[in-house]
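A quick aside before the break. I want you to see a complete sequence-to-structure record at least once, exactly as it would be stored in a machine-readable document. Don't worry about memorizing anything.
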Amino acid sequence: MGGAGVEVGSRDRPCKWVQLPPSGPHTDQHGSQPWEDPGPAHTDGSVSHPQCAGEEDWVDSRTVYVGHREPPPGAEAYIPQRYPDNRIVSSKYTFWNFVPKNLFEQFRRVANFYFLIIFLVQLIIDTPTSPVTSGLPLFFVITVTAIKQGYEDWLRHKADNAMNQCPVHFVQHGRLVRKQSRKLRVGDIVLVKEDETFPCDLIFLSSSRADGTCHVTTASLDGESSHKTHYAVQDTKGFHSEEDIDSLHATIECEQPQPDLYKFVGRINVYNDQNDPVVRPLGSENLLLRGATLKNTEKIFGVAIYTGMETKMALNYQSKSQKRSAVEKSMNTFLIVYLCILISKALVNTVLKYVWQSTPFQDEPWYSRKTEAERQRSLFLRAFTDFLAFMVLFNYIIPVSMYVTVEMQKFLGSYFITWDNEMFDEELGEGPLVNTSDLNEELGQVEYVFTDKTGTLTENNMEFRECCVEGRVCAPHAVCNGQALPDASATDMIDASPGASGREREELFFRALCLCHTIQVKDDEEVDGPQKSPDSGKRSAYISSSPDEVALVEGIQRFGFTYLRLKDNYMELLNRDNDVERFELLEILSFDSVRRRMSVIVKSAAGEIYLFCKGADSSIFPRVIEGKVDQIRSRVERNAVEGLRTLCVAYKRLVPEEYEGICKLLQAARVALQDRDKKLAEVYEQIETDLVLLGATAVEDRLQEKAADTIEALQKAGIKVWVLTGDKMETAAATCYACKLFRRNTQLLEVTTKRLEEHSLHDVLFELSKTVLRCSASLTRDNFSGLSADMQDYGLIIDGAALSLIMKPREDGSSSNYRELFLDICRNCSAVLCCRMAPLQKAQIVKLIKFSKEHPITLAIGDGANDVSMILEAHVGIGVIGKEGRQAARNSDYAIPKFKHLKKMLLVHGHFYYIRISELVQYFFYKNVCFIFPQFLYQFFCGFSQQTLYDTAYLTLYNISFTSLPILLYSLMEQHVAMDTLKRDPALYRDIAKNALLRWRAFIYWTLLGLFDALVFFFGAYFMFENTTVTSNGQIMTSNTHVVFGNWTFGTLVFTVMVFTVTLKLALDTHYWTWINHFVIWGSLLFYVVFSLLWGGVVWPFLSYQRMYYVFIQLLSSGPAWLAIVLLVTVSLLPDVLKKVLCRQLWPSAIERVQTRNQCLSVEQPTVFMLSQTSSSLTF
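That is the input. The structure line, written in tokens, reads:
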């Protein structure tokens, strides 16, 4: 009954009103339902609906015709659909757009665009330097970056082609046809066999299994290797052959593609014999995603609904927002400063030129007379042209090659993390991953670490510890590490033996645990994915995506109840009497993080209908009307204090009439295309009420290896650690004590819902503020850590509800709220625990700290999908490759196997990365000041004529060849302190905190050092050539050194001293020497000498000038020139050497003290060895 002319999927169209027929039993092509609020009515009884993209009350949907078969006449209008094919395109460029698109992206960078402008100016006007001097370095940078990006994109093209050309089996006209994956279209029926990946997003129609289920692993999507069970459509699961499935007559209405892997809303209309269609709801359990793999199922049939770039996997390709490191921001700031210096230099020289030329004919020497046209040119135009010429002359102060060097350093340096064998986990068989290399140095600047608890601090390896039934505690000590101990007693009973009703409740409790889950049992010896054996004597295994469920079902075996299997929609279990009990599975009310519980509705062999519910205590207790609530709550709180994960179990009996009403409510909610999740949640709330409490369970999630040691090291390094978890406060607090986040002397401050019931938020916050600020005023407190023994140590605990109140603006509408007060309290606490946190609240906490007035560098680490939001929000996001899947690892900047590896990641790798890139940035600016300031000084001696001091080859190759490799190798290999020392002494991390090496003080020092060295280069060479005479053949010769003198000889001497000085300066800064360092540093100096000899020793036919011919050879043939080079290099390096010696002796940093101590030890060890050898040789 769709309105004719309505085009499906018009997502990005403007608003328009579409005429629809009067209401009927089916939806239109856009998925409008009869229960929607109608729009304005028309005289013919039809209604209009506004169709606007992006409106919250509008669901943009599509209709898919299964097998491309038109609906029966009169059922609904058939509208041809246009959807993309099944090609996946992850590449960024094509053959045709690579050059323009790549150039556009590269010239968006300020430095590249600046050098392009300089290059164009050199081409347009008469400038003192050749366009080659700017064009060649720019071309080199652009080419290297383009090659790197082109190669990476070629690899993506290669992977795309392999994926798009893989064979897929289609069902056409009742038989199988084999085609390439890219030719698959929406509506095609596809056959997928075991261990094959799904070629697109499919609606599951039928499988080779009689119960219409299949097992799927989504490791390539979210990393979860556990098996997930999917269910075929009830009315199509009996179609097992190609002929049967080809006879299917159905249409599917579903939402338009969206990236959420775990959400899907749709419904299928199955037409049988021209009657009204059977409408069935479709959810995520019916959707098979592209990239997932079929397991333990021979074959399945499915219909394609999303193809190509509209599949959920492809929609998740979109890149995350770009993160920029603090070092990169400092680089850009310094670049602006140097740009201002450049403009100032050009402006000063332009003004002085015209001041100097104000004397008549001063601007027209006898050898360079102006033409009449030149005399008539506008003064402003001449001045502007001269200004541009000076800009070109001094433009090398902006180091364009620094950007490509930094990119290479980050890209190559990231391999040191992936190659680190100490961070390789043997159990997982995996090491660390680097998803982005742009933030390497940010690992050395972290001030706050926000960590998840379950799976990050703990192992997420659950072990059943005990259960409390009707107030009686049962502890199966026989279960240890997932293995049954044959000689152990079955239970340890506390309290009195149960009566008749107690015995019934106890057995009902164990049945509830056997039935209320989503575990699958595989009756084979070999099962893919994580598994647990339900009975060591049977060839079977438990398969579940939740380790909690496996631990519970495994644990209650010790009480005589064993879950066997789900067969033909009947759940079978073995009771204490070894009798098999069968329960018909009627409904599953799935678990979600908002409800924090799940339920099943089952029917026993006697015809009784039960609803069994299990979930968090906070979600079960409010719905309980009967049971020993106080005793069970007391036990739950005690277990939580011990750090155990607790669940409560409840039930209620349903009469058939009540169950029929529930079915109708569920069916109405499940077939909704609009707000289905919301409607289902409302129905679940109605159903899960008036429960009878049966008992509670306790499961232990052990602390990860060296988690406490890692947190302690981070705190010593000056890093504040916050734990953000969804667990209850008592459980989370116990874990915090176990991992040494809280200590015995830590005074806990609480901002929790329980406390806010007694006092207002304003009173609580101000009371805590006075407490912590009074302590901080009386003691000199370190900003980052509260580890001192002579001061009060505070820890803060806050829950999600209290955080919501803090983040909420005040009722009077004022913009001020309690955030700043809350932040002041947090700053004075050594650790903070945030419990009962929703995923979005985790991100809010990170954002709150990230944008506080100090703007600290934040790091978030987690292992589950609920941690993705905070990982994306933090400056650095780290995913733990854990048991909750790899969504966190996929969305993170770095991924590590275990939490303990965070210690080396930050304290060693982060420290080295920051030290290296800081030196790289400062060194680049320093050597360019050394390079260009003599050129500035030279203008005072050449009448501001824009005469260049250096030869074109030297201008071009200075940053590309002569000085580039030493600093690149330094930035990759430098270790100013040994790795073991950094791990042993975390406090060394504080020395580089808050971008210490790139502050203005350090930047000014490097700049002044460059200015001093430039003055030494220039005036040292100038005074050497001060007295000159003209020889008989017209040459100018110095009277004191007898060196043939000229401007190119002068410039070459300055350049030679400069190259040796900046290279030796780097050698003095190097602490970690390898053969590679020696080869590159001394090799660079040798290359400069050899190049200069060849450049000036051969008449090059392709050059229009030969001004450098024999210049370098003539210079080196003079003994005084050699002496001048040695003296000037020594004088240039002397201030830096003296500064280092004095600072090391008088004001040593922690790192310098360690270096001195290590040097002393290295000297003592050979001495001790020699003495021992001498004494042994004297012993007879």
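Two observations worth writing down. The chain has a mean pLDDT of 78. The two ends are 111 Å apart (CA to CA). We'll return to this after the break.
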